[in-house]
């Protein structure tokens, strides 16, 4: 049962990545070209998922939207890891006031959800893919910092750390040679969870017009556009949302599955 | 350390967080490149009128002076005046707080009512199909963004069944002083439901793991050993012990709920804080953006503070120590 969750997760995530890659070389139709004669076509052999209010093939836009989603997610999570992991490891290794400051700063960052950061950035410099990625990335730093700190605290009690310190290994070398490799798996789980959160945030931001500007297709904007036709052609609002939900579901299942795989004792409680 | 000291420390941290947050908000909006006067007048405007507008809005003063003017006014409840309409930001924001608060508070009250039974079921019956179903339902609910849930609800209940309005908002008491409870509720059902679906899914997961933990505790086994039924033992011992982690999650989730409400307001065209904020962003009315974000961050920090303090009430063991 649990194991099947992991596999469903892997398949869903693989599908999203595949869609993003395929869109680089092929889409059924041009995802940007307005086709006045093809407006609001229902699903069929010509257009597998129908067309939108501009006559553009929905499947083509979904495929390209996957690219935007994956790109924003990867950059945002990398940003969060680059910011959060060193802070967390530092706090875990040094303890005391260093740890206290890191925890306080992440508490304050918690009060700034990605949406508010994105709004501030959009107000100051205008909304773009970059502002969305930066906002989501910064908002995810505290989660990485906390997980990295907790995992580091456990690693620091191990005998091999004691041995390394006794033999005069520097803190820097210990952190790179011993701590990072031993907390990498936990960070992988966190990356999977954060990726899911990033997709949800990107979808909300592009729905609100606070991320990648048109005409580039994003799943959130597709939902926004589809809402104008909700009384005449409600079915087209279904697809982009389904794409978002399945991607997030995939990443959550992947994260849960990986965590269980790492620590079978957690299987019961989590 | 006694609980008085704990409360004092927590209040101090709250005040410091508020201060740091206000600086952060001010710097992001004001220190990044991009000029308000140019944005308002357009790029073709001549330098003289841009300089004139900057002077009128007080934007030619040093950053530090502007920060303290803004923050100082805020302490007296004055959020400044809109760059575009010269309207008081406080007057713009105040009536909208209530609208958003209705959404958030009602959702927060309903979500635990769904999540507690569902999470307890998922924990008690975790090896049977009932538990698996409860977990699967919450896993799916977690993956759906609130605004998509809202759109789906509109398709089902407004477009197809025509039971409820697709969007809009009615004040509980309208401008003429007349009570409009039916219309008020009708317009809130779908937005609240879209927030509840997501919130209760998150909560269910935490309730489930909190109760599974309780099930493995010695006191629970003892209660069972002396002949109590599972549900009685869970009710007497489980609820209070599980409450600590559940309250934490509810506290943390309130912040997410607030953000969710901003998005859901757009789905249902509800004139709340989120709508005001987004139209201020579209107009580059930075002082309004700054003010509303500050109000939202203030709300989040207050919620965090109350969550921390509520541990003292729930868990007597913490009263003697620092609550963290």
Q: Fraction of residues of chain B in helices?
A: over 70%
Number of strands of chain A: 0
Strand content of chain B: under 5%
Terminal CA distance of chain A: 14 Å
- Say how many strands of chain B there are: 0
Using the alpha-carbon principal axes, give the shape of chain A: elongated
Q: Uncertain runs of chain B with pLDDT below 50, 5 residues or more?
A: none
Please give the structural blueprint.
The complex is a heterodimer of chains A (270) and B (324).
Chain A: H1 2-25, H2 58-94, H3 96-110, H4 114-125, H5 129-139, H6 141-156, H7 159-166, H8 171-208, H9 219-227, H10 238-262
Chain B: H1 3-31, H2 36-41, H3 47-57, H4 63-75, H5 89-124, H6 129-143, H7 146-160, H8 181-215, H9 218-225, H10 230-267, H11 273-282, H12 286-314
Helix pairs in contact in B: 1-12, 5-6, 5-8, 5-10, 6-8, 7-8, 7-10, 8-10, 9-10, 10-12, 11-12
Please describe what this structure looks like.
The complex is a heterodimer of chains A (270) and B (324). Chain A has helices at residues 2-25, 58-94, 96-110, 114-125, 129-139, 141-156, 159-166, 171-208, 219-227, 238-262. By secondary structure, chain A is mainly alpha-helical. In chain A, helix 6 runs antiparallel to helix 8 (171-208). Chain A is elongated and about 75 Å long. The two termini of chain A are 14 Å apart. The mean pLDDT of chain A is 87. By secondary structure, chain B is mostly helical. Chain B has helices spanning 3-31, 36-41, 47-57, 63-75, 89-124, 129-143, 146-160, 181-215, 218-225, 230-267, 273-282, 286-314. In chain B, helix 5 packs antiparallel against helix 10 (230-267). Chain B is globular and about 85 Å long. The mean pLDDT of chain B is 85. The interface between A and B is large, with 47 and 56 residues.
């Amino acid at each position: 049962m649990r194991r099947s969750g992991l596999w469903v997760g892997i398949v869903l995530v693989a599908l999203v990545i595949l869609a993003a890659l395929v869109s680089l070389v092929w889409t059924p139709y041009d995802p940007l070209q307005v086709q006045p004669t093809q407006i609001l076509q229902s699903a069929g052999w010509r257009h597998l998922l129908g067309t939108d209010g501009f006559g553009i093939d929905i499947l083509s836009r979904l495929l390209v939207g996957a690219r935007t989603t994956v790109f924003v997610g990867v950059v945002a999570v990398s940003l969060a890891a680059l910011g959060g992991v060193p802070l967390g490891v530092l706090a875990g290794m040094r303890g005391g006031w260093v740890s206290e400051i890191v925890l306080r700063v992440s508490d304050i960052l918690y009060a700034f959800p990605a949406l508010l950061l994105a709004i501030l950035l959009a107000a100051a410099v205008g909304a773009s893919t970059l502002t969305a990625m930066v906002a989501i990335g910064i908002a995810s730093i505290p989660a990485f910092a906390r997980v990295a700190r907790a995992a580091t605290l456990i690693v620091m009690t191990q005998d091999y750390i004691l041995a390394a310190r006794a033999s005069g290994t520097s803190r820097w070398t210990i952190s790179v040679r011993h701590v990072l490799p031993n907390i990498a798996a936990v960070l992988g789980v966190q990356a999977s969870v954060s990726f899911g959160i990033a997709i949800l945030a990107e979808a909300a931001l592009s729905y609100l017009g606070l991320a990648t500007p048109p005409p580039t297709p994003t799943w959130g904007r597709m939902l926004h556009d589809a809402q104008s036709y909700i009384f005449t052609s409600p079915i087209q609002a279904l697809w982009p949302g389904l794409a978002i939900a399945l991607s997030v579901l995939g990443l959550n299942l992947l994260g849960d599955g990986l965590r269980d795989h790492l620590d079978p004792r957690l299987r019961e409680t989590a | 350390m006694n609980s008085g000291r704990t409360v004092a420390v927590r209040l101090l941290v709250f005040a410091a967080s508020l201060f740091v947050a206000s600086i952060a908000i001010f710097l992001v909006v004001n220190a990044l490149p991009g000029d308000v006067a140019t944005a308002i007048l357009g790029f073709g405007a001549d330098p003289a009128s841009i300089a004139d507008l900057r002077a009128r809005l007080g934007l030619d003063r040093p950053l530090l002076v502007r920060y303290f003017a803004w923050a100082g006014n805020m302490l007296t409840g004055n959020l400044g005046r809109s760059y575009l309409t010269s309207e008081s930001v406080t007057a713009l924001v105040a009536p909208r707080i209530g609208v958003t608060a209705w959404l958030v508070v009602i959702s927060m009250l309903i979500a635990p009512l769904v999540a507690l039974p569902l999470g307890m079921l998922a924990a008690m019956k975790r090896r049977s199909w009932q538990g698996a179903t409860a977990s699967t339902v919450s896993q799916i609910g977690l993956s759906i963004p609130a605004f998509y849930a809202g759109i789906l609800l509109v398709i089902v209940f407004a477009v197809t069944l025509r039971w409820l309005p697709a969007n809009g908002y009615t004040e509980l008491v309208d401008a003429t002083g007349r009570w409009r409870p039916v219309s008020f509720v009708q317009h809130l059902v779908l937005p609240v439901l879209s927030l509840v679906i997501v919130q209760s899914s998150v909560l269910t997961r935490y309730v489930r793991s909190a109760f599974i933990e309780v099930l493995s505790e010695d006191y629970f086994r003892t209660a069972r050993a002396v002949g109590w039924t599972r549900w009685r033992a869970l009710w007497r011992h489980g609820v209070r012990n599980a409450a600590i982690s559940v309250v934490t999650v509810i506290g943390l989730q309130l912040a997410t709920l607030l953000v969710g409400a901003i998005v859901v307001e757009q789905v249902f065209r509800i004139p709340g804080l989120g709508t005001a904020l987004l139209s201020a962003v579209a107009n580059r009315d930075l002082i309004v953006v700054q003010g509303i974000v500050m109000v939202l961050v203030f709300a989040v920090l207050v919620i965090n503070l109350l969550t921390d303090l509520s541990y003292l009430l729930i868990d007597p063991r913490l009263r003697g120590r620092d609550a963290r």
